[in-house]
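User:
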Amino acid sequence: MDDEPAGVAYRIEDLAHHSGATVRTIRAYQDRGLLPRPERRGRANVYSDAHLARLRQIADLLDRGYTLASIKELLEAWDAGRGLGGVLGLVAEVDGPWTDEEAVRISRAELDERFGGHPDDTAVADAVELGVLERVPGSEDTFLVPSPQELAVAAELYEAGVPLSAISGHLRELRGQVEHIASRFLEFTSEHVFARYLGEHPPTDADAAEAAALVRRLRPLARQTVDAELARAMRLFANRNLRRHLGAEQPPAPADETRSVAVPAETMAAVERLVGAEKAAEFIAVAAEREVRARALDALAANHADLRKVDEPS
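Assistant: Predicted structure:
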């Protein structure tokens, strides 16, 4: 970045006003080496349009999730002439839509009609909290629907007799489980695929472009894996549940449903502090079940990777 001011000259208060940063933040960026020092004109410090552009660039990178340390390395690369095109292209690939769905708008009247014709402010508030609906600024009776498919599923469940409160509760539970699967898949691919691109220093343009291409290739895999496993599990449990209700399969004896497991006293004490003594056993059971599912996902993804290696020509 050129230290010479060009165009409009700003005092630090003016720079703060135009950039949205505070005076204190601007000075902190200077101390960290993120923002060059101003030009000294007599007894005044003068900032330029280049300083304003740099502050906006920092704000944009912070919004994308970068730390100040990472931003400093990126900006140093930029100043050295390496450019940020590849890195920002990778960020755009990850930050872009992960679905083909397009958001639509729906009026409150249309919403009420789809759910029985009876206004339910509590259900609408739950939907907004969960992100199924988003309020449109300046219009109290219009909502944005990020996933029309998700809203359609809710409408079908409601028509089938499921209360809206139960649908909201199910979605909260499901979202937590799906977020865990997504986190595990990201850890898996980061370790085995993207580790070479995510080192201590920003990737080169070529590496960033290659990583972006991998994101495009791997993006559908998580969804395909979950779809396949969900279909398998739904068939298994639906048949088991049906046979049980028809009397073809007896439920296991209560003695077979639980087993005693020794848990270190320190671990149990930590769990009790976290969720309370009355919920400790339930918490440990759920945590163990999540870990088993996560390992199953890891094994499935590993098998997929091994199959691809076998299929690739030597």
